């Protein structure tokens, strides 16, 4: 019998421990908004792959009950972005049918610890204000110099676990 030498296998233990102990690819967990400090949870929707429901846990508005469903989100073609629809008035009717919704893109960081929120609009709209300059010879324009991608949240749980193993 002859013995053959083989190259040793190198395993990065730090990256394996982090990958197995915290799943950054899933947005499920508890999140806290920057600014007002509202806390909400992202929960996988039963029977729908890559769809999640959003629930208020703690709000600065004391009239909003705990565990109030306020929206949902679904994964887009980009693996870290989700198309979200949140209710305009979560204190109103208990039935989600007929409620006005806001459309948002939730963009999660690569490590899954931060979320940025970008609103968007879709549909058709008629702008009667364009006729005003012809009627009164004045110019009206909207100015929005607020930077994009500044609204967001950070993950409270599950927190990424980093373990360093020394051999």
Structure description:
- By secondary structure, the protein is mostly beta strands.
- The chain is 8% helix and 34% strand.
- The chain contains 2 helices and 8 strands; from the N terminus they run H-E-E-E-E-E-E-E-H-E.
- The chain has helices at 13-21, 132-136, and strands spanning 29-33, 39-44, 51-58, 68-75, 81-87, 101-108, 114-120, 151-157.
- Strands 1-2-3-4-5-6-7-8 form an 8-stranded antiparallel barrel.
- Strand 1 and strand 2 (39-44) form a beta hairpin.
- The protein is globular.
- The model is unreliable at 8-22 (pLDDT under 50).
Question: What is the tally of beta strands?
Answer: 8
Structural class of the secondary elements? mainly beta
Large-scale geometry: globular
CA(first)-CA(last) distance: 33 Å
**Overall average pLDDT:** 76
Strand and helix order: HEEEEEEEHE
Helix tally equals 2
Widest sheet, order of strands = 1-2-3-4-5-6-7-8
User: Major beta sheet, specifics?
Assistant: 8 strands, antiparallel, barrel
Question: Which blocks of ≥5 consecutive residues have pLDDT under 50?
Answer: 8-22
**Helicity range:** under 10%
Radius of gyration, Cα only, in angstroms?
23 Å
Q: What percentage of the residues does DSSP assign to strands (E)?
A: 25-35%
């Amino acid at each position: 019998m002859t013995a053959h030498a083989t190259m040793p296998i190198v395993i990065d233990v730090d990256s394996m421990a982090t990958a197995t102990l915290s799943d950054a690819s899933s947005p499920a967990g508890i999140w806290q908004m920057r600014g007002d400090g509202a806390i909400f949870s992202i929960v996988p929707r039963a029977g729908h792959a890559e769809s999640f429901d959003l629930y208020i846990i703690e709000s600065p508005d004391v009239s909003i009950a705990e565990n109030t469903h306020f929206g949902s989100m679904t994964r887009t073609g980009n693996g870290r972005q989700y198309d979200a629809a949140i209710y305009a008035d979560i204190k109103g009717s208990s039935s989600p049918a007929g409620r006005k919704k806001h459309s948002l893109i939730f963009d999660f960081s690569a490590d899954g610890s931060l979320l940025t929120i970008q609103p968007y609009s879709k549909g058709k709209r008629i702008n009667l204000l364009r006729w005003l300059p012809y009627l009164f010879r004045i110019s009206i324009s909207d100015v929005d110099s607020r930077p994009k991608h500044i609204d967001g949240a950070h993950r409270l749980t599950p927190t990424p676990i980093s373990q360093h193993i020394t051999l």
